[in-house]
Predict the 3D structure of the following.
Amino acid sequence: MTRKARLGLYLEDEEIKKQIKIAAARRGISTTAYCAEAIQERLQKDGEMGNKVSKDRLALLSRMDKLRQEIGPVGTTTAELVEEGRRR
């Protein structure tokens, strides 16, 4: 299992937090995953990630995003998934 680096994120506006939760739910991912993807995309655009994210990987992620949008919600809320994870 790989170690994950922890990053605290403080937002100026509670509305932004709500928008992030909604956007993540629409994609069927956690708010953490949503924020991590957004940060990775920005770093890639800014040229800070070097070659860590290949064009092939970006294309795959783009296809996965489109598929998530086509499929829609998986029928399980994020809260239920979190609770299930806690039970394990």
Notes: Residues 14-87 form one domain. The chain has four helices and no strands. The two ends are 16 Å apart (CA to CA).
